[in-house]
Amino acid sequence: MTAIPTPTPSRPHPDTRSLPPYDPARLFDLLRQRLQLHSDKALAKALQIAPPLLARLRHRGLPVSGSLLLRIQDVSGIAVDELRRVLGDRRRRMRLAIGLRMPG
Predict the structure, then answer these.
(1) Which residue in 23, 42, 4 sits closest to 83, CA to CA?
(2) 8 Å CB contact between 51 and 41
(3) Residues of the chain with confidence (pLDDT) below 70
(4) What residues contact residue 1 under an 8 Å CB cut-off, 6+ apart?
(5) Dihedrals phi, psi of 92, to nearest 5 degrees
């Protein structure tokens, strides 16, 4: 009788070991500080997204999409790689969200 192989536990990718845990609030706090904004409402306006959407993103109700990271880069001047590091993003690929639309 042959032994059934035991699954090996998955190990994190070597590049992600030093990342902080996923925390969108940390990203939005950094943005408010860098852009010198005093509220999430002002940050939502700067990012051209609805304040309730920002609240859902901050509290992990929705993931931060690649499209939003690109918009944040445009508004803040912070590189996407740095934004992902602050966010604690461990995804190897980013998908662009089709549902994010610019107002107006």
Answers:
(1) 23
(2) yes
(3) 1-19, 93-104
(4) none
(5) -85, -25
Q: Tokens 């706090």, residue? A: 29
DSSP designation for 33: H
Q: Whole-model pTM? A: 0.71
Q: What is the pLDDT of residue 86?
A: 94
Q: How far apart are CA 68 and CA 73, in angstroms?
A: 9
Q: To 5 degrees, how large is the angle CA 92–CA 60–CA 58?
A: 105
Buried b (16+ CB within 10 A) or exposed e, 3-18: eeeeeeeeeeeeeeee
The shares of helix, strand and coil residues in the chain, as percent rounded to the nearest 5, are 45, 0, 55
d(CA 12, CA 54) in angstroms, rounded, equals 29
Residue 73's CB: how many other CB atoms inside 10 A?
Answer: 15
